[in-house]
Amino acid sequence: MAKLSKTRNTLGENARLASVNLLNAALADLIDLSNAVKMAHWNVKGPQFAALHLLFETFYDQLAEAVDDTAERVVQLGGTPEGTTQQVGAATRLAAYPADLKDGIKHVTALAERYAALATTTREAIDAADEAGDADTADLFTATSRTLDKALWMLEAHLG
Ligand SMILES: [Fe+2]
Questions:
Q1: What is the dihedral of CA 100, 102, 103, 107, to 10 degrees?
Q2: Cα(81) to centroid of ligand 1, in Å?
Q3: How do the domains of the chain map onto residue ranges?
Q4: For 142-153, how does the pLDDT look when each residue is reduced to its tens digit (9 = 90+)?
Q5: Residue 84 pLDDT greater than 90, yes or no
Q6: pLDDT for 23
Q7: In angstroms, what is the span from residue 148 Cα to ligand 1's centroid?
Q8: How far apart, in Å, are the Cα atoms of 90 and each of 4, 85, 113, 142, 149?
Q9: 41 alpha carbon to ligand 1 midpoint, in Å?
Q10: Ligand 1 center–CA 60 separation, angstroms
Q11: In CATH, which superfamily holds the domain spanning 13-157?
Q12: Over the stretch 73-83, which tens digit does the pLDDT of each residue have?
């Protein structure tokens, strides 16, 4: 982890460093998941095409906002967002998204698994940021966690 840039933000350096690491880990997963959602949006086929194509687009828009908020908080704390394709590919904790999926329910299942995984590490990040003394980063993770949980509910509703 590179040294943090100077800032007038009075949050302690240890807290900022802890949060930058948590945020960059989340950033990789969020970008990976947003790419998976776009793959599902493009490749989905079957009788639920219209509904799922639109739902996945909505998910993408939500994740794009979470990605931006996460990366910008890294910079606010004096860090550097690690968001290149290569950095994301090396850092993501999500299972690789299958490139050949077509069936709508298979996309829903594959996305549900990844939303659940990211929701889990996001909840852990809420506690870790809180323990580091950065309530604002904990709050950012809390907002992301709510978004992920809501999407997971919508995905699981398709699975009965
Ligand atoms: Fe589109």
A1: 70
A2: 26
A3: 13-157
A4: 999 999 999 999
A5: yes
A6: 98
A7: 21
A8: 22, 9, 20, 25, 25
A9: 7
A10: 10
A11: Ferritin, core subunit, four-helix bundle (1.20.1260.10)
A12: 999 999 999 99
